[in-house]
Design brief:
The protein has 230 residues and is α/β, with parallel strands linked by helices. 40% of the residues lie in helices and 20% in strands. It contains 8 helices and 11 strands. It has a 5-stranded parallel β-sheet with strand order 2-1-3-4-5, with helices on both faces. The chain has a 4-stranded antiparallel β-sheet with strand order 6-7-8-9, with helices on one face. Helix 1 links the parallel strand 1 and strand 2. Helix 2 packs parallel to helix 3 and helix 6 crosses helix 8. It is elongated. It starts with a strand and ends with a strand.
């Protein structure tokens, strides 16, 4: 899943993004409302973690535009105020969930996951195919009982292939759903709309590592001109 973190406190934004990436999400960060709108127009995000008090374009206006445009992106609104009135106001704007600062990070991750499930085709927490067993909750994967040592990116790619249930998944779809716009840049560097996207060659490299970890006999096949299938 792909998440946009829109938070003007840059240190907090990067801490949230780093934690969400460790939980297996592809995450982009922006620090203003106009940048949030630009990124939301460029990419198909599952969830936006949206601070209400954003500069240049207020977070409330970002939420309004998403709702008015019929976006399927779920909105998790952040605020420094925890009053009932503030929460009701945020939900009335179209937010799908609401978290007050300061917050416990495990709760934030859980709420992001819950929002993604609301808008997506239901996927069982455990996926199995050809001796591979993947647990998306515990973030573990095995092949014929042997534990697989996968990076977060490799785990996500394997999950996408398993979810496809034998159908081919294109490199562009893998890039969109498993990589973020921060791929290949230095940690904490600000993102800008129009930055060059990760190259499809990144998928080839990841796929090579995933194939090596899965071992023999080979399970991932390349479908010429289409993508990859398990």
């Amino acid at each position: 899943m792909r998440v946009l973190v829109a938070e003007d406190e840059e240190t907090l934004a990067e801490l949230v993004a780093t934690g969400l990436r460790r939980a297996g999400f592809a995450v982009d960060t922006v620090y203003s409302g106009d940048a949030a709108l630009a990124y939301l127009g460029l990419h198909d995000y599952d969830v936006v973690v949206l601070d209400r008090d954003l500069p240049r374009v207020h977070g409330d206006d970002v939420a309004r535009r998403l709702v008015a445009g019929g976006s399927r992106t779920k909105i998790l609104m952040l605020t420094a105020s925890g009053t009932t009135e503030d929460r009701v106001e945020g939900l009335d704007l179209g937010a799908d969930d609401y978290v007050s600062k300061p917050f416990e990070f495990p709760e934030l991750v859980s709420r992001v996951r819950a929002l993604r499930r609301r808008g997506a085709r239901p996927v069982p927490p455990q996926l199995e195919r050809h001796g591979i067993r993947l647990d998306s909750v515990r973030r573990t994967a095995t092949r014929d009982g042997r534990e697989l040592d996968l990076s977060p990116k490799e785990f996500t790619v394997l999950q996408l292939l398993l979810e496809a249930d034998g159908a081919a998944v294109g490199a562009e779809e893998l890039l969109e759903r498993a990589w973020d716009a921060n791929a290949g840049s230095s940690p904490g560097s600000p993102l800008r709309p129009g930055r060059e996207s990760p190259h499809p060659g990144a998928v080839d490299v990841c796929m090579g590592k995933l194939r090596a970890e899965l071992g023999e006999p080979a399970l991932i096949r390349t479908v010429q001109g289409v993508g990859y299938a398990l």
